[in-house]
Amino acid sequence: MQLSDRITQLTGDGSDGWDVFYRSRQMVADGEPVIELTIGEHDVRTDPSILEAMHKAALGGHTGYAMVPGIKSLREAVASRIQKRTGVPTTYENVLISAGGQAGLFAAHTAVCNPGDRALYLDPYYTTYPSTIRGTAAVPVVVHTHAEDAFQPRAEDIDAESEGATSLLINSPNNPTGTVYSRQTLDGIADVCKRHDLWLISDEVYDTQVWEGDHVSPRALPDMAERTIVVSSMSKSHAMTGSRIGWICAPKEVINRLIDLATNTTYGVAGFIQDATEFALSQGAELEDKVAEPFRRRRLLAKEILAQQNTVGLIPAQGAMYLMLDIRATGLSGEEFANKLLDTHMIAVMPGESFGTAAAGHIRVAMTIDDERFAAALNTLCEFAKDIAETT
Ligand code: PLP
């Protein structure tokens, strides 16, 4: 029996850069004391107050089918949060509750791309981007960003690929680079989108983790609300990765179509999780800051440690829970460096090559262990890099 081309070709050619990740996972499973700095999972769990709200909602009977587009009061809460943060008039009709940001990315591309359409995305990229686009039968088209620009995209590079394209997917604050797109970058992107009539899909799952500069949502830029689809979630902002809840914010007509899609795919999100999300959002920035605080602290720690040496370079860590480190002075690829670091010091990091080709010679370090172990691991990593650089 034959499977569809769409499913068999979903993940493309794969990348060797993930070998080190799977190897570290196996070592952990074998009981080895690996220091895991690989994936974007908080070292704290969902706040007990959110879990209490979830428990109360479930016991109260909110365990049946929930409204497919999301409970109206939650859609209103999300809309009001977005309006407050961006100044763009937003109502519940602009919001669909989704099963996390990932489902939102898939839905957004499904809503705007026909099979065979060119859908642009930027390298380095969050791992699922090209396969998400392929999953909707569109054709992923990559645009490179550059380490020398601290991975801020250049409008002219996007422009060069935009003729006949349908959409552009961006992510700021960015995973894996930690870059926060400047107003100038976003103005350039908005201009390209308007000139080439592109939909802009803006992944803003890290919008509460900004350490330097301001998070600008491109939906707030002139004449962009009508062509922008924002995808966000509670995963990173509220340490709710396992609850699988997020949202899509878009023009009302897009949301109406996405409700049709949700009816035929997820059929909505669990009601008790929606209630807990409404509670979490009602706590405002206080809870979000509490979740973001450890990363803010560790990023400062990292800056201090990295300032004391000159082998490992730091791409300005402006946001998100990662550091992108330039290890080209060692003469190793990111993948070689990560493998050796794991073998010799049991520290697991992601090679830049796991995220495309633009971050080759870099590694991504997730700031997701306690401060003391994090600082010790970073010091070891710098010493290790220095030794290699000196012997080559
Ligand atoms: N977008 C980016 C850039 C991410 O890093 C992630 C998760 O790591 C997601 C989307 C998906 O997040 P979720 O589906 O948990 O909301």
UniProtKB/TrEMBL annotation:
Entry EC number(s): 2.6.1.-
Keyword Transferase listed: yes
All copies of domain Aminotransferase class I/classII large, residue ranges: 33-379
Cofactor(s) listed: pyridoxal 5'-phosphate
Catalyzed reactions per annotation: L-aspartate + 2-oxoglutarate = oxaloacetate + L-glutamate
GO biological process terms on file: amino acid metabolic process
Organism superkingdom: Bacteria
Single GO MF annotation: pyridoxal phosphate binding
CDD domains in the record: AAT_like (cd00609)
Listed PANTHER family: ASPARTATE AMINOTRANSFERASE (PTHR46383)
UniProt family annotation: Belongs to the class-I pyridoxal-phosphate-dependent aminotransferase family.
UniProt-recorded name of the protein: Aminotransferase
Organism (species): Shimia gijangensis
Organism taxonomic ancestry: Bacteria, Pseudomonadati, Pseudomonadota, Alphaproteobacteria, Rhodobacterales
